[in-house]
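Internal ticket - ligand job 269, FE2/S2 (inorganic) cluster:
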Amino acid sequence: MELVVNGEKVVAEPREGQSLLELLRDDLGVRSVKDGCAPEGSCGACTVLVDGRAVVSCAQKATRVEGKHVVTQEGLSADERELWARSFVTAGASQCGYCSPGIVMKAEALLRRVPAPSRAAILRALAGNLCRCTGYQPIVRAVRAAAVDAPPARGKPSVASPGFRVVGTRPPRVDGAEKVTGRALFGADIVMNIISAGLSLWNDSLNAPEGEATIPTLLFLVLAVWSIDVAGFILSRALERPYALGVAIMLAYVLLSISIRATLFPATV
Ligand code: FES
Ligand code: FES
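stdout (structure tokens):
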């Protein structure tokens, strides 16, 4: 079947009974869509837009979106994501951030229909989205701020940076924007990384000339990727820096070690 995901035409072959959430996360690698209770359909963490309507993707069969336009956080413009990030971070509306991408997509659907919703309308719209650690008052404030701050034409916004003033203010959370916009990775996303790396190596090995890639080689590579991934994640938490930076440091460390060893002890590499 064909569908459009974040503006790109996709050809997919959903498995029997596969949900839209599984199609997006497992087959297409869309990480901003979170699994909070699948297949219950009761927490809203997996909310995406289907033809402009907010739906919980874990309760939607993948086959039902054939020919439709699916939009996740990755499909919003950079300015729209910045606007949501700023509103949520300023209002302190995202603590662990697991629920935030789903809430943002639900709020995005609301603001596209009603550019200046009342508080009651926001509460109604977000009734199906659960947040277990922030509390709903800051979230409602964030959505109202996004509505006020929204540029005249949603979809083609242009948001100026608020600048970085620190003295006398509460600085924003280091990883706040990443969490709000679904770029922060959680445990399940890291497992996804490992599985994706393993699958792509497996594919490579099937296409490689005989003897070039063996199963032990693949396992070694998967373990190596896994180690860098986990070590990078732990480092990023320890330094309170973005996950990508932690992985980049670990990768640089591994490459540097290999090149030093290759230079000093070529026989051991
Ligand atoms: S994961 Fe879909 S509603 Fe909870
Ligand atoms: S911020 Fe943690 S569940 Fe909402």
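Auto-summary: Residues 50 and 152 are 23 Å apart (CA to CA). Residues 151-162 have pLDDT under 50 and may be disordered.
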